[in-house]
Amino acid sequence: MSASLPGKRELPASRYDLSTYWGRVKQSAEISDPRTLFVSTAGLENAKRLVSSYKQGHVQSMTPELWQAKRVVDSTLHPAFLAPIDTGKAVFLPFRMSCFVLSNLVVTAGMLTPGLQTTGTLLWQITNQSLNVAINSSNANKSTPLSTSIMIRSYILAVSASCSVALGLKSIVLRLKRLSPGTKTVLTRLVPFAAVASAGALNVFLMRGEEIRQGIDIYPVLSEEEKAQKEKYGTSVPSLGKSRKAATLAVGETALSRVLNSTPIMVLPPLVLVRLQQAQWLKTRPRLVLPVNLGKQSEDKHSVRTTKDRIGLILTTSIFALPLALAAFPQRQVVKASRLEEKFWNIGGEDGNVEFNRGI
């Protein structure tokens, strides 16, 4: 993000009020906008130059062009925050939050495919967790690096958990004799959600567990006078130290946001498709009819139409759900120093507050 670029002045955090939920939703929608993926390398470098010009005092006020440059930078570079250790380098394109919807589209459609057998379920769950590992690692707080061995171990545990939940719940639902066929169909379609939600949250804790064990850097909240002094003299804000409680809060909120994001994406499309399958009015409109047996994996025109409908529902839901989930908690988290370890109680910033990068 823009914090990693050279210059004394800090850009406004957003054109929206980030103290409100809807302000964060609008900000998250900009960061996760897939259109920023089409910005060329030259366009990114130009955006970085514009942002640096403001930070170095060559541009005195925010302009529409500068806001657009900040949007490109924030959606492309690593979510750096105050410290240069949060690299500020460009996140690999498929793992950016602006590519989250597109990267997950095929994987989510695969997991929600009706009639998946054991092999298909395992392959899609492994693919999903592999993507989660890459996204979580790429957007984590970099003040506490993660070793390759820990990353591999965390990945294996996350894959094992997701596959176990998916196969276990599916087996349980099929054995429930007292449920009606319709209820069984609905519950079977929701099994992927249970697997993704539980394993997705676990994946965040596993991949970022080192942050909890070692802590993450926290910084004092500066007063307006201190911000002016920092801008005038170009001084950096030193870390107050590493806090394990701050790390637990950051990782916990990120895990919860993952569950919030997967809920509408993994619940609404399968339920809507079940409802459409049962709708009588479709029988009088042959061009809109879905296959009676959605589990049939043939290559006829109805199966193709079903796939398109499923992907369309997932895409539409994902585009709206991601900003709502990302905005659940602010990325620049401000808390009272008294909520953290005792060593920070008397060294907080303005009003005793400290701040840290939650990650995405």
What does this structure look like?
Residues 81-87 and 286-304 have low confidence and may be disordered. The protein has 360 residues and is mainly alpha-helical. It has a four-stranded antiparallel sheet with strand order 2-1-4-3. Helix 4 runs antiparallel to helix 5 (118-138). It has helices spanning 21-31, 41-55, 64-76, 100-111, 118-138, 148-175, 181-207, 209-214, 224-233, 244-278, 301-326; strands at 216-220, 241-243, 332-336, 353-357.
Helix coverage percent? 55-70%
Oligomeric state of the chains in view: single chain
Describe the largest sheet: 4 strands, antiparallel
Query: What string, H for helix and E for strand, traces the elements in order?
Result: HHHHHHHHEHEHHEE
Structural class: mainly alpha
User: Radius of gyration, Cα only, in angstroms?
Assistant: 23 Å
First-residue to last-residue Cα separation: 12 Å
Kindly state the mean pLDDT as a whole number?
79
| Number of contiguous helices | 11
- Strands of the biggest beta sheet: in what spatial order? 2-1-4-3
The proportion of residues in beta strands is: 5-15%
Low-confidence stretches: 81-87, 286-304
Number of strands: 4
The coarse silhouette is globular
List keywords for this structure.
single chain; 360 residues; mainly alpha; 11 helices
How are the SSEs placed, and which strands pair?
Layout: H1 21-31, H2 41-55, H3 64-76, H4 100-111, H5 118-138, H6 148-175, H7 181-207, H8 209-214, E1 216-220, H9 224-233, E2 241-243, H10 244-278, H11 301-326, E3 332-336, E4 353-357
Antiparallel strand pairs: 1-2, 1-4, 3-4
Helix pairs in contact: 1-11, 2-3, 4-5, 4-11, 5-6, 5-7, 6-7, 7-10, 10-11
